[in-house]
Amino acid sequence: MHEKQILKTLHAQKGEYVSSDNLASKMGISNAQLSDEIQKLQNDGYRIDSSSERGYRLIKTTNRLLPYEIQLNLTTKYIGQEIYHYSEVDSTNNVAKELAEKGAVEGTIVIAESQRRGKGRRGKKWLSPSGGVWMTIILRPDIPTSQAPLLTLLTGVAVAETLTHECGLDVGIKWPNDILIGDKKVCGILTEAIARKGGLDYVVVGIGIDLNVDVDEFPPDLRKGATSLKNELEKEIPGEKLVQNFLLNFENLYQNFKEGQLSEILNQWRSLSTTIGSTVEVKKRGGTIRGEAVGITRDGILILEMDDGSLRKIISGECTHYKR
């Protein structure tokens, strides 16, 4: 339980040694307990040099998305202040729903290093190997259930703006839940709202970002339409800073959303959209609809202009772009 405090102290020393006695005293533990805690951190991938005379110093951090690394410089008020970390889960959304049912507070995050059964929209499997950001946020907004889909759009804006700012990439959003670099998917979002008789109980928002994933190892049918930040930038990306900035962007947008500042968020989404202005085909259970995407409503519903000039609203479906 002392890992975060130890790391904070070692980080603050900027590579200089901290004496064992001082560090143990600050933590309120014995030198033997301190040694055990240091060993745990080393097992997690941190390079920490130890000297019987000089103490401990941090040489290199890990690029694993561990809670104490994410929270070390996190400036949010509540999003991400409670983190549940797992090496592997079936689905972070499923774990988040279990925690929400037990009363987990708003802003709680579930993050995993890999998922066995990551979920996409409409029951599709989402490939989630090590090296990605597989994360779910628990929210408890006081909104009508009908507004829950807007949280997908809000999250898309937060992801797109984070990747643009942090990575300098040309990022776009494909309605309703895909983040693209060029015409390749780098992130998917899955929002699940749980409603009771009295209204909306809670929402879990799942975010899957192909961070340092090796796309060449994807199955051939997925490889063509997917990319990763590592693939685009040709280098490994520090995950904790990206997640920290995403969480802050998300919190700011979510606060605006709860305060009724919806128009600004929708305008941001429209400016990032690769769907609006494209000819699209939307697969629904009842068949396929094709038309030109001309906008979205205040409820996040896609508006298509049909060949005869009529307008049609599409609440949900699998969207494919054909041309700009």
TrEMBL record:
Pfam families: BPL_C (PF02237), BPL_LplA_LipB (PF03099), HTH_11 (PF08279). GO terms for biological process: regulation of DNA-templated transcription. One of its GO terms (molecular function) is biotin--[biotin carboxyl-carrier protein] ligase activity. Its EC number is 6.3.4.15. Keywords: ATP-binding, Ligase, Nucleotide-binding. It comes from the Archaea. Residues 66-258 form the BPL/LPL catalytic domain. GO terms for cellular component: cytoplasm. It is an enzyme of class 6 (ligase). NCBIfam families: birA_ligase. This is Biotin--[acetyl-CoA-carboxylase] ligase.
